[in-house]
C-alpha cells in the first residue's frame, strides 16, 4: 500500500513536471523600428478630491478649524478658556452686511486678567515644527472697554507653550491684524490659545494660523510635503475638486466654484458631503472653507505643469443621495457657471471673469482645455443635460474638450452594466470628446480586464479612466488597505491602458489623499497625518508609469506567457519609446511568485548603448504595504544592467513591476 502511494505521487509529479520542462520560454518582442501612436502627455494624471480631509486639514494647511464660525455649529472646533463664568462670556453674532461670511464671535471680558480666551483644536490637532514660523491673522474690532491685548499661544497637549506672541491696539472698526509665532518644538497635536487681557468687548472673525513654510511660500498657499509628492509624479493633468462633492448631497450643497474665489473672507462655506456620507466613518467637522478654491486649483495645476481639469455640476445632485434635478428650463444658471468658468480660466484680464482672476494675481490665462460636465451621472436625464451644456459651450468655445461620464463603477450603481451600455450608445451618437469610466473593483478584476480596451471601437471618442483603484476587501470597505497586491494588479491594468494609448488618453487613481485620523474612504494614493506623509505602493506604480510614459507606443508582444492559475496569465508587458533620449521603455509586470526568465527581442534595433537602466518595484508578499512608520517598505530600486544586443535574456523578479530603459538606434530601413 505504502509503495503504491509513493509510486502514484511520483507519477503525478512527473506528469506535473512534464509540461513545465517542455513549456516554451516566455518571449517578449518589442517592435522598435515602427513607433506607433503618440502617448498623450495627459496619459497619467492626478485626481484631487476633497474627501478624507484632502483639502481643509490636508492640502490646505490652515491650522484653525472653523476660522470664521460658519460651521453648522458655530463653536465646532472652539472651546472657551475660563475658570469661572464671572470672567467673561461669548456671543455668536450675525452681520447681514457680510452675507458671504456673516458670523463672528463677540467676547465680553468681565474681569481684566489672564484667565479668559478661546482655544482651537485644529484638524485632529495642529502640526507644528520646531524653528518654523506661523502667521497668525485675525479680523477684530473693539466694541467697548479696555480689552486691548491678545496673547496668542501654540500649546502642546499638556498645555506647554510652543510659541507665543502678542497683538494689541484694536480700534472700533473692523481691521485685519497679523503677527508671527515661531515654534520651539515639533508637535503633531498642538492647539491654539488666544487669551484676552483687559476687560471690555471685542469682536473677532477670520482667526487664522497658517504656516509660512508652504509649497511656494505664498500667502494662502498649500502644504509643501503633499504638493511635493504630487510634483514628483509629474502628472499630466489635475482633475478637481471631486468626486461626489461636485454634485452635492443636494443641489444647494453642490460645489459652486464662484463661492470659492476672491478674498478668502468672502468665500462661502459649504458642508462637505463626506461629513455624513458613511455612517461607519462620520466626520461631523468636515466642511469646505474654500480656502483652497478654484484659483488655487488652477495655480496648483500650473505649478505642477499639469493640465487643469475642473469638473462641474450639471444640475444633478449626487444620484446616490437626493438625486435632485434642476429642471431643463432652469438649467441656464448651471450652464452659465460653465461659460463663466471658461472665461475665468482663459479670458483676457479685462473680461468680467478674467478680471477676477487678474485681481487675484494671475493676469495671464490659465489655458484650460478640459472640462468635465457632471461627475458620476447616469440616465437619460444626464444625457439631455450634457447635450444642453455641450451645445452652449461648443458654440462659444469650440476648443474646450468636454468630458462625459458613464456613471459610477457598474458594479455599484443601480442597473450598472445596462446603464453604462446605454450611456455609451448615447455617447457614440453625441460624440463628446472624452468619456470617463470609473472602476472600484477587487484586484483580480484589474488583471482579468487587462485587455478591456483592445476591442473598444475607435470612432474618435477618447477614453478617460477617471477613477480607479483595486479594493482589497470590497468597494469603500473601511477594511480596505493599499496592499502590494492592489498596486501590482493596477500595474497590470495600466499596461493594458498603455497598449491602447491611441484610445485611452488619460487616467488617474482615486481617491488621492487620506488623513490617517479623518478618512472616510480607503484605499487612497497618499496618506498623511498633521506632520508626515507617504506614498503607498499604488503611488509608486502611478509615479513610475508617469515618469516613464515615453512619447510613442511600441508594439510589444508576449509569447508563451506563464500562467498564474487556470484563468490568469502571470506576465504582462507594454512598451513605449522616449524620442528625446532614444530609449525603449519596456514595462513588465510579473504577478507570479516565481522569477520569470524571459527572452527579450528589440526587433529592428541596432547600436544598443549599454548599460540599460532598470527600475524595479517589488515586495515579497502581496499583503505588504507602506505605512507612516515604514513609508518606503515598497519603494522603487534603480540599477543598471549590461545589455548590448537586441536579443537578451532577463529575469523578472517574482511579484514585481520592472521598467527597462534601453537606449537603441532603430535600423534605418531607408538605407
Ligand atoms: O472617490 C470616491 C468617490 O467615488 C468619488 O467621490 C466618486 O466620484 C466615486 O463614486
What can you tell me about this protein's structure?
The protein is an alpha/beta fold and 671 residues long. The chain has three domains: 15-39 and 552-670, Immunoglobulin-like, CATH 2.60.40.1180; 46-61 and 215-245 and 272-340 and 370-547, TIM Barrel, CATH 3.20.20.80; 78-211, Jelly Rolls. Helices cover 20% and strands 32% of the residues. A nine-stranded mixed beta sheet has the order 31-30-33-28-27-26-1-29-32. Strands 2-14-17-18-19-20-21-22 form an eight-stranded parallel beta sheet. Strands 3, 6, 7, 9, 10 and 12 form a six-stranded antiparallel beta sheet that branches. The longest helix is centred in the N-terminal third of the chain and has 21 residues, at 2-22. Residues 49, 51, 242-244, 375-376, 408, 467, 510-511, 521 line the site of alpha-L-arabinofuranose.
